[in-house]
Design brief:
It is built from five helices and seven strands. By secondary structure, it is an alpha/beta fold. 36% of the residues are buried. Bound molecules: inosine 5'-triphosphate (ITT).
């Protein structure tokens, strides 16, 4: 069974630990019009799964800050505007959090798995942390340098990729997907016996 990860984000791709969908760079990305991570992950997986016969998964993810009522949420990639880069997005989060004591935040990842335009299942992973007042570290991507993970005593931007993979929202959603696929394989081979 072929399984491909579909994302335009190199940071995510490094964490997928899966083969990238061949030819993805020449496929127009779908519009992300959903109000939830689930909706957007499904839109992406359905779209990209039309370009292969294998299984395709896509991730919709973001940072949800308690004191900002869950923002930037599904707008995480474009919080500071449609073409905003991570630096601008991070700056805007810090600006909106200026003087706010409650720094609780979580990363959320929803992975949708599809095949040939049909949704199979979604999987959600989350990780809790705190927003710092200044970025720390150059690893990871997106909001990682602002996201302090108490269990590590450092930000995701200071952690190694391997460390981040032990606790991250994306790693948790991926693990749930792999467990599900394992179960499907086992029941397929049971019924073949
Ligand atoms: P694809 O849709 O092609 O996968 P994207 O970057 O546009 O790429 P999203 O719409 O899901 O993906 O936006 C996710 C944004 O949330 C991402 O650009 C980061 O700003 C942020 N984000 C998600 N996971 C993150 C992580 O592990 N570390 C830091 N920031 C993260």
């Amino acid at each position: 069974m072929k399984l491909y990860g579909a994302t335009t984000n190199q940071g995510k791709l490094r964490e997928f630990d899966a083969e990238a969908l061949p030819g993805l760079a020449s496929i127009d990305p779908p519009e992300e019009t959903g109000q939830t991570f689930e909706d957007n992950a499904i839109q992406k997986a359905l779209h990209y799964s039309g370009f292969t016969t294998g299984y395709v998964f896509a991730d919709d993810s973001g940072l949800a800050v308690d004191a900002l009522d869950g923002a930037p949420g599904v707008y995480s990639a474009r919080y500071a505007g449609p073409d905003a880069n991570s630096e601008a997005n991070n700056r805007l989060v810090l600006e909106r959090m200026n003087g706010i004591a409650n720094r609780r935040a979580r990363f959320v990842s929803v992975i949708a798995l599809a095949r040939q335009g049909r949704l199979i299942q979604t999987f959600r992973g989350e990780v809790e942390g705190e927003l710092l007042e200044t970025p720390r570290g150059t690893g990871g991507f997106g909001y990682d340098p602002l996201f302090y993970y108490p269990g590590f005593g450092c930000t995701f931007g200071e952690a190694t990729l391997a460390q981040k993979q032990t606790v991250s929202h994306r790693a948790r959603a991926l693990a749930a997907m792999r467990e599900y696929l394992q179960g499907r394989n086992e029941s397929a081979s049971d019924s073949a016996e």
